[in-house]
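ESCALATION

Customer reports they have been waiting on this structure for their group meeting. Please prioritize. Original submission:
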Amino acid sequence: MRLSDFQVRQIVAIVESVFPHTKHIILFGSRWNDEITGGDIDLYIEIFDELGHAAEIRRTLIAELRLALKTTAIDVLFFSPNIEELPMHRIAKETGICLNQTVQALDKELLESV
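Update from on-call: job pushed to the front of the queue and completed.
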């Protein structure tokens, strides 16, 4: 994965601040593959609650992520109970890396090293 532990933690913290009931935060696309260069940060965000005002929330979330990660190359794909599942949703879930689970693993490693 071509994101640092710090960047992963930032992404998860920002997304969870906007969506406290986040089910999955998945990095998909080229950034999960260490052998590929370039590419933007593609995020699939699945939430438990219905999503209203998706376009406005998406703009706000991307702006916060851009500031924190110091990059403009970020794209976000949402999924919630009121959004029809599309092939892109399935591709993201099947091919990506779950960042919230990655943070849990990092936290566990940190606790075990103390």
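Sent to customer with the following note: The beta strands are 22-28, 41-47, 74-79, 97-98.
Escalation resolved.
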